[in-house]
Specification:
single chain, 3 helices
Length: 141
């Protein structure tokens, strides 16, 4: 599953639905996984995997993989962050099929919990964050 993050990035960048509200989506640094570049652009999408579990049958055989991700839309404008996050949620929620070089059984996207602490920006940065929680289901290989 090591390339799932890169496949998610490719899918986000290729989305015309997200690009409709985020014209700079394909710009360098606009979509970042896990780390932040120096002087990143605004707005931007930052994401990271938070958990991954492999289901096994009673004989140890492979089953469904559940991979959990956080996606943050970071901007200096709250309305812009929320609009991009909504477009991403609508695009990714209930998505099924090709995700880059992999095939997913389903993606479910929702808002983060009220006590969520952003990971893509420092608390004192003054930037606005709209965060999503993703669950990606795919067959283990």
């Amino acid at each position: 599953m090591s390339d799932l993050g890169e496949n998610l990035r490719t899918t986000i960048i290729a989305s015309t639905a997200i690009a409709a509200v985020f014209p700079g989506l394909a710009d360098p640094g606009a979509v970042q996984q896990g780390v932040e570049m120096e002087n990143p652009p605004l707005p931007r999408i930052w994401y990271q995997r938070t958990n991954e579990e492999d289901d096994r049958d009673l004989e140890g055989g492979p089953g469904l993989v559940t991979s959990e991700w956080t996606i943050e839309v970071i901007s200096d404008d709250l309305d812009e962050a929320q609009e991009i996050a909504l477009a991403a949620r609508r695009y990714l929620d209930c998505y099924r099929g090709a995700l880059g070089t992999q095939t997913v059984e389903g993606i479910f996207a929702g808002s983060q919990t009220d006590d969520y602490v952003p990971g893509g920006v420092a608390a004192e940065s003054g930037l606005c964050v709209s965060a999503l929680a993703l669950q990606i289901f795919l067959n283990s290989t």
